[in-house]
Amino acid sequence: AQTVVDGGAPLRDLDPDVPVLLMSGFSEDEGRQRFDGLGIAAFIEKPFALATLRSAIQGAIDQRHGRPPHG
Fold it and tell me: Rounded to two decimals, what is the model's pTM?
C-alpha cells in the first residue's frame, strides 16, 4: 500500500490555493485524522461512485471561488 504524505505539494508550489482531493482506502474518520492539517478540500473513501467524485470536485471548485456548496 502506498501512503503519500502530501501529493499536492508540487501543485501548491505553483498555486498555494489549489484544492486537493484525498482518495483513500481509510475510512473518512481515520483519513481525516491521518491527514489533518494538509489542507485537504475533500476526502473520498474508496471505493467510490463517479457521482461522489464529481460532487467532491464541484465542492472544491465552489469552495475555492467562495460559493456555497451545491446541495
Answer: 0.71
